[in-house]
Design a protein that fits this description.
This protein is mostly beta strands and about 110 residues long. The protein has one domain. The protein is built from no helices and eleven strands. Strands 1, 2, 3, 4, 5, 6, 7, 8, 9, 10 and 11 form an eleven-stranded mixed sheet that branches.
Length: about 110
């Protein structure tokens, strides 16, 4: 299993719905059962609790998926999108916002 981090920027407390993470993702990846193209993305909490929206700004594609809250032992210095590589496919696994111990885990 290989873990890959995408470069991104973040502001505010993501879990509280105020922050939007932006990232340039240079590869095709899976979010739940949806395949998303490489591109410039926004990731934010969706309107409903425990839901996450991943939106490609260039291609106008978006997906909303359920997430579970996870906790870190320390506060991350930077926001992170964590991808796992299984075979030749990347899967979005976790979302962390800078300075927030609470992250989001995708099934």
């Amino acid at each position: 299993m290989f873990v890959c981090l995408a470069s991104l920027t973040a502001g505010g407390a993501f879990a509280q719905g105020g922050a939007v993470l932006t990232a340039d993702i240079p590869f095709v990846f899976h979010v739940g059962n949806t395949i998303m193209p490489a591109g410039h993305y926004e990731v934010r909490s969706a309107i409903a609790p425990n839901m996450l929206m991943v939106q490609c700004l260039q291609c106008k594609a978006a997906v909303v998926v359920p997430v579970q809250e996870v906790s870190a032992a320390t506060r991350p210095d930077t926001g992170r999108l964590i991808f796992h590589l299984h075979g030749n496919a990347y899967f979005l696994s976790k979302v962390w916002t800078a300075g927030d111990r609470q992250g989001q885990s995708l099934p």
